[in-house]
Design a protein that fits this description.
Layout (H helix, E strand, L loop, with lengths): L3 E4 L8 E4 L5 E3 L12 H4 L15 E2 L2 E2 L2 H19 L4 E5 L5 H15 L4 E3 L6 H11 L8 H6 L2 E5 L3 H4 L1 H13 L4 E5 L12 E3 L6 H14 L5 H7 E2 L1 H9 L10 H12 L4 E5 L1 H4 L4 H14 L9 E4 L6 H7 L15 H11 L12 H9 L5 E5 L3 H4 L3 H10 L2 E6 L12 E4 L8 E4 L4 E5 L12 H14 L8 H14 L23 E2 L20 E2 L18 E6 L15 H4 L6 E4 L1 H7 L6 E5 L4 E8 L9 E3 L32 E7 L4 E7 L9 E7 L2 E8 L6 H9 L5 E7 L4 E8 L2 E9 L7 H7 L6 H4 L14 E3 L4 E2 H9 L5 H8 L9 H12 L6
Parallel strand pairs: 6-7, 6-14, 8-9, 8-12, 9-10, 11-20, 12-13, 14-15, 15-16, 21-25, 22-24
Antiparallel strand pairs: 1-2, 2-3, 4-5, 4-16, 17-18, 18-19, 21-26, 23-24, 23-26, 27-29, 27-32, 28-29, 30-31, 31-32, 33-34
Bound molecules: ligand MGD (2 copies), iron/sulfur cluster and molybdenum atom (MO).
One ligand MGD binds next to helix 17, strand 15 and strand 21.
Length: 863
């Protein structure tokens, strides 16, 4: 079968994928990001390209409509709002998951033809602090790092980055480099002990937002120990004296980490010239995010450790095209192609090139302000593309209300039901990954092609075409007459040439003559160019700037239960709001419920034990989560993943309790610092359901996910139903199923099996306390003709051992299987792989395998 060379649609590593229409997915051995590797999410792409749940035709007010009516309506509503209320009464909210061509066209329509800069993107929640930090230090938003630098470094410092789960292929590249060069050191700076710690020689458990204090402390230490590169500073860096003075005024102990660990870190950094500092959302998503970036860049600039192989700061991007969006200017405070809205010459050049009737003259609304303007009635028409703000924005319930408050809302998505799509007047069906063509830029500035290998199903269209169709209906047809994404890419490269006199970092001239169809992954400006190697930066004087940054007031520990600091982030096998990864049973098996990691002391204070449900709440809202009691989190700093939505969890979304506090420079929200109370959610009963048909459960708590045999729901409710069988027939929508009931009066447990034509359709367990049973066994019985006695036993048959919760998603290897193998003598990750196959495909579970091996070696060690 012929395979198409394309790029993974998930994280910013940007791995090359070989994909076939039948669902074959392989890592591309020739792609320089991954050289054939894929992580668990990339490997499972074949399980996510079916049409179940897809939005396949336009909808107006919830009814199926044809394209002409839908496009006419969008164009009419936007034109009317602009006519009656001015260009700033409309807004686009777009995404780092759009392809560069989509992004370019959306930005062109808003900034050059509508004449407003009210286009912002979910990159505001993701990379805005890095963008602002780079601009302050370098004069431009330049990411100097490359993946090869990670392999060449002698010290890698990971700050606020759970690389093992969020950039797994980079983690694997570092792990391989460390194995080849055992002297390489890795330091992890994170308030949590994450899977990434398994690679770390040193873990600094900083307090939330302790990063500025730590890096200010490092800068002062470097100055005090004659470790500054004074020649480099004289020639290439301004602002050093004030930056060092501010650093000296900071007490590094304010960072919250242990004093001896801080000292070891400073020594290691000071004495290792080849150091790469990798940073991600623990840095960016903070009220001091831009200053955290500044504090990190200060240390690299002061030592000249930038622009050299194996040395430099490296902001790794989250989304597949976060970088492409920054390049085309998709943020409300950028123009296009790294040009500035505030600069008249830049504006003139772009307007002339676009031959546009107008051009925005001031920055538009940033995400949080944009939705506040929606709430205040200032936005009359809103178009959301390829993002799910009703879940992913802070204060998500308020954002949902704000969207509802906009008189006209269009949403372009690939899925029919999302929390945001449910609020739309018009739904526009987009072609998804594998069905459309375009380009993306990964974290190391490498532009790769995404290529279609499937037909666009039913009525779906690529985003660039939907946007161009609306632009045409708004009267701008001549400027949006694209036939293919290649036309758009060519125009984007031509705009880059027109902007060349401004001599900025962005230089796409190498793409001027390439054949779009066969474009090979290429870095801009060229594969062999190293930014800042010559010490030239982009401020007017050609120098970089160090900045005086002040550490925020340290978060004093000793929280009370009424106010703990809620940290949030990601799981290994899910992508954001799970619209795609949620389809793959393989990926759902890793962590199938929304949870709260809670320190044992916090749990004890709240009277909560492992497996209980907890209410996490504050004045903004509440959410119900499963408590995982663990010392991976510090006291008073519980952690919850961001993934569950109103579609997948009836308890609510985590962002219902995150306030919309933003960084004053970048406008990026502080998504890692909620202030919440945690209390026991004492349900009347708890249940687990595995079933074949898609269930619809509306109990107080209900977390639904895919399984290999259908679906599963973790449930809980206050009131005990009068008729369990009726409840289950309703949830599974099987009114005529025959039921077998096992009512264990003594323990108060209920077990129900539903059959149709002797095939087990559903199996259900309920109890007055969280139910304990082998979930994998229950799931495995669904769809078989197992008799009720077996199906309701709650465990595997005697001849089949219970594999336990899944650790390796690729080969479906459970924890019990692994522990058995460890006990039988498999004492290393490699040995475990040889015996069970776990970790031998994508390798994403290797940190967890390492933990199992370590735990087994130290049976009494606290988890
Ligand atoms: N599996 C998976 N991978 C993904 C994604 C996904 O949804 N799923 N999404 C992609 C996207 S868009 C992004 S942006 C990236 C995000 O990638 P990461 O930034 O690596 O992921 P997060 O889990 O959001 O946060 C990283 C860490 O920041 C820590 N942290 C919290 N507060 C602080 C602090 O004050 N200081 C420090 N130093 N650390 C802190 C958290 O404990 C957490 O472990 O992942 C990308 N990759
Ligand atoms: N609490 C908390 N909140 C966070 C974060 C956090 O760490 N903590 N992280 C933040 C960050 S870094 C990010 S990046 C955001 C991500 O948050 P979102 O961008 O809101 O999340 P996604 O689920 O990726 O949403 C993408 C949407 O686009 C749809 N889609 C997929 N492909 C296409 C396509 O080709 N065309 C169109 N039109 N639609 C498509 C998907 O079905 C989905 O509905 O979340 C932010 N929110
Ligand atoms: S690391 Fe995983 S999610 Fe990220 S691009 Fe590679 S395969 Fe995709
Ligand atoms: Mo992100």
């Amino acid at each position: 079968m012929s395979l198409t060379r394309t790029t993974c649609p998930y994280c910013g590593v940007g791995c090359g994928v070989l994909a076939g229409a039948g669902g074959t997915i392989k890592g591309d051995p020739d792609h320089p990001a991954n050289f054939g590797r894929l992580c668990s999410k990339g490997s499972a792409l074949g399980e996510t390209i079916d049409l179940e749940g897809r939005l396949l035709h336009p909808q107006i007010a919830g009814e199926r409509a044809d394209w002409d009516s839908a496009l006419d309506l969008v164009a009419e509503k936007f034109s009317a709002a602009i006519r009656d209320h001015g260009p700033d009464s409309v807004a686009f909210y777009v995404s780092g998951q759009l392809l560069t061509e989509d992004y370019y066209v959306a930005n062109k329509l808003m900034k050059g033809f509508i004449g407003s800069a009210n286009i912002d993107t979910n990159s505001r929640l993701c990379m805005a602090s890095s963008v602002a930090g780079h601009k302050r230090a370098f004069g431009t938003d330049t990411v100097p790092g490359t993946y090869a630098d990670l392999e060449e470094a002698d010290l890698i410092v990971l700050v606020g980055s759970n690389l093992a789960w969020c950039h797994p292929v980079l983690y694997q590249r570092i792990a391989a480099a460390k194995e080849a060069r055992p002297n390489m050191r890795v330091v992890n700076i994170d308030p949590r002990r994450t899977a990434t710690c398994d690679l770390a020689d040193l873990h600094l458990r900083v307090a939330p937002d302790g990063d500025v204090a730590l890096f200010n402390g490092l800068l002062a230490y470097l100055a005090d120990h004659s470790k500054l590169d004074t020649d480099y500073i004289t020639a290439h860096v301004g602002g050093c004296t004030v930056a060092i003075a501010a650093a000296r005024a900071t007490d590094p102990l304010d960072c919250g980490a242990a004093p001896d660990e801080i000292a070891s870190f400073f020594q290691l950094w000071a004495n290792t010239p080849k150091v790469v500092t990798v940073y991600s959302q623990g840095v960016n998503q903070s009220a001091s995010g831009t200053d955290k970036v500044g504090a990190i860049l200060n240390c690299h600039l002061a030592t000249g450790r930038i622009g050299k192989a194996g040395s430099g700061p490296f902001s790794v991007t989250g989304q597949p095209n976060a970088m492409g969006g920054r390049e085309v200017g998709g943020l409300a405070n950028m123009l296009a192609n790294h040009l500035d809205i505030e600069n008249a010459a830049h504006r003139e050049t772009v307007q002339e090139f676009w031959n546009s009737p107008t051009i925005c003259t001031a920055a538009g609304l940033k995400a949080v302000d944009l939705f506040e303007a929606c709430a205040a009635g200032k936005i009359k028409a809103l178009w959301v593309m390829s993002t799910n703000p009703a879940v992913s924005m802070p204060d998500a319930d308020k954002v949902a209300l704000a969207i509802r408050n906009v008189p006209f809302v269009a949403v372009s998505d690939i899925m029919a039901r999302t929390d945001t799509g449910d609020l739309a007047d018009v739904l526009l069906p987009a072609a998804g990954w594998g069905e459309k063509d375009g380009t993306v830029t990964n974290s190391e500035r490498r532009i790769s092609r995404q290529r279609a290998f499937l037909p666009a199903p039913s009525q779906t269209r690529p985003d660039w075409r939907i946007i161009s169709d609306v632009a045409t209906r708004m009267g701008f047809g001549a400027a949006f007459a694209y036939d293919t994404p290649a036309d758009i890419f060519a125009e984007y490269i031509a705009l880059d040439a027109a902007a060349r006199p401004f001599a900025r970092d962005l230089d796409l001239s190498i793409f001027a003559d390439v054949d779009y169809a066969t474009l090979v992954p290429t870095q801009w400006p060229r594969n062999d160019v190293r930014f800042f190697a010559d010490g030239k930066f982009y401020h007017a004087d050609g120098k970089a700037r160090m900045l005086a940054v002040q550490a925020p007031t340290p978060l004093k520990a000793v929280p009370t239960l009424n106010t703990v600091t809620l940290n949030t982030g990601r799981n290994r096998d899910q992508w954001h709001t799970m619209t795609r990864t949620g389809k793959a049973p393989k990926l759902g098996a890793h962590l199938a419920e929304p949870y709260l990691e809670l320190h044992p002391d916090d749990a004890a204070k709240a009277g909560v034990v492992h497996g209980d449900l907890v209410k996490v709440q504050n004045a903004l809202g509440r959410t119900i989560l499963r408590a995982l009691v663990t010392q991976r989190v510090a006291r008073g700093q519980p952690f919850a993943p961001m993934h569950w939505t109103r579609q997948t969890a009836r308890g609510g979304t985590v962002n219902s309790v995150i306030a919309s506090v933003t960084d004053p420079v970048s406008g990026q929200p502080a998504l890692k610092r909620g202030s919440v109370s945690v209390s026991l959610f004492k349900a009347g009963w708890y249940g687990f359901l595995a079933c074949a048909p898609r269930p619809v459960a509306d109990t107080s708590y209900a977390a639904t996910s895919r399984t290999a045999t259908g679906w599963q729901v973790e449930m809980a409710a206050l009131e005990t139903p009068e008729d369990w069988v009726q409840l289950l027939r309703d949830i599974t929508r099987l009114p005529d199923a025959t039921a077998s009931v096992l009512d264990d009066g003594i323990q108060g447990t209920i077990r129900v099996a539903l059959y149709e034509q002797d095939i087990l359709q559903a199996v259900f367990f309920a109890a007055p306390q969280p139910v304990v049973l082998s979930r994998s066994a229950a799931i495995a019985y669904v769809g078989t003709s197992a008799p009720p006695l077996a199906a309701l036993a709650g465990r595997m048959g005697q001849d089949q051992p219970d594999p336990g919760p899944v650790v390796c998603a690729c080969f479906n290897v459970g924890q019990n299987t692994l522990l058995a193998a460890v006990n039988a003598g498999a004492g290393t990750v490699k040995a475990l792989g040889a015996v069970t196959c776990a970790g031998t495909n994508c390798g994403s579970c290797k940190p967890e395998l390492a933990r199992l091996v370590a735990q087994a070696a130290l049976p009494l060690a606290a988890e």
